[in-house]
């Protein structure tokens, strides 16, 4: 009793690795893995080389047979070729971006071996995450070693029950263990002309050919993880591909499916017809609204009309009144009427949005009023960390403009807190208000340091300067495999938002390179001028500023300052964008051993919402978290402790000692983010795991400096080489005045 696992592959090595790893660990006995590569869809030769290497490696642990689709393309052709090569008693289709859950498939095989079964089909689990993350979440524990085969698996179905279950969800051939001889007798093939919906006619064909002697068994526990893709830009799944021929393709699959069903099988006919109506309703409205959406041509509309004509009236009862009206209009070939009803439904929803939803209302206001007003050539709008502070690159670009061209411009600052004092008397507005929209629409120059709202519609005449907020250590956007903390559509959203940036500021050539792949950003638009926020670190009056900052924070001038500025942790949060803070430093110990000479200045990341006031006030710990600008805190400090924050790239400009408190390095690197540089060998200071290590390093800070001198210099030259105190000047003179 063996199984041929058939996997079509065209792109996405990281997906395939997960898929094959899951087979390695599935505890299968007799099996073969048939991989059919669709080489016509590869991006380049390197991709080809790399996948061949990968397969060579996996061949050492798996019985892989690989084949290539030469003159054909598409998942249907790949599956047909795979089927023709299969040699085991059962076949099982997988997609290369999915993976098996534990030993589910081997249990399905045990069930198959115990009786004469045509098909054993498992239950799917839909997930956004890679296998590692999926298996780590507690919830998945329940699938592990789940019950024994007898209680867990064996549920016999008659074919109409199976059909009902499949048509209620999605008709797919995935996760079905099918007897090969039975399949061959059926003479079915996947329709190679159908790019998106070849599963429909194939599965309907299987159902239609099943007799009451053919047993189907369903597994109740989940055996297969089907992945959604959060990178729809580089790796869209078949269902995420934007294509305008979907309506035709679905209709072809529907017609072919209908051809397989025997006249007597009314149940199956109804299920298929209802499935078709649902597809039509879901896609009909889109077909005349969006740019990349499916198109419904007149001919196809006519063909759908004929299809609906042949359906039994009882099918329509399952839809609501308005849906029925649309279906009837299509059935009667009345295109105008169908559009009118669909539009009415659309407007009803819009109207609800217009009066009940702030974003919809804002959009309408922007479109119909603000964007029709002329753009103001001398208005410059600044936003730092979503309006959370007066800080970062934006602050220094603003202050340079204020000093040199103050009278020529009108400045607008986005600030959540109106009480923060900003020099130069700019217009202060709150984010996401009508005023915000108004200034966004009318300002010629927009200077931001993080993302602007996704709904922002840039005007051609405006200039959007994205200054970003740090040299990247942690992997960003398209270089991250899974996105844990942001929205699941983070990659697509980021892509859309970043297409509106005219310039992206970079601090060094390393960042430029990273931005190119992490943001899929055009190098031509990246300006490598250094960071304006680091200008202050080269100021002539740096000592004076340091004294002033200490005074403002109440730190005795005679004390040295240890700045502790960690980053945020993706898995420690209250809700999206609201992160927790847990202090890993033993303050009492540190105070006892270092309190004579030092104070500790705590600075939490701007995502963190926990207040640290309760930890301060004993003359040793000071709160720097409400301080607007961290660059001023750098100046006031003598040593910086950080972890995976981009803080150290900037701090290194001062050439003062940096300690890395990396007590959760493995977790952070492996699970949460991944890094661009090697922390062990490239950062300009020691990686310390415990409180004792930290204290000892500070007690012997001169030795630490000596040990890391050479590495610090290399680091400085690589990352701080452009910063010279004139970055703001370069931005303003070249991008705003130039
Ligand atoms: N920051 C701060 N206080 C901290 C940590 C960070 O004020 N305790 C500021 C610093 O200016 C830092 C910036 O926020 O450079 C970005 O913080 P990171 O910790 O690097 O994290 P993140 O916001 O995820 O940005 O390319 C940079 C990445 O996008 C990282």
Automatic annotation (TrEMBL):
Top-level division of the source organism's lineage: Bacteria
Residue span(s) of domain Glycosyltransferase 2-like: 4-123
Membrane topology: Peripheral membrane protein
Compartment(s) where it occurs, according to its Swiss-Prot or TrEMBL record: Cell membrane
Keywords assigned: Cell membrane, Membrane, Teichoic acid biosynthesis, Transferase
GO BP field: teichoic acid biosynthetic process
Entry GO CC: plasma membrane
Chief place where the protein resides: membrane
GO molecular function: CDP-glycerol glycerophosphotransferase activity
Family indicated by similarity: Belongs to the CDP-glycerol glycerophosphotransferase family.
PANTHER family, alphabetized: TEICHOIC ACID GLYCEROL-PHOSPHATE PRIMASE, TEICHOIC ACID GLYCEROL-PHOSPHATE TRANSFERASE
Designated name of the protein: CDP-glycerol glycerophosphotransferase
Organism, as annotated: Anaerosporobacter mobilis DSM 15930
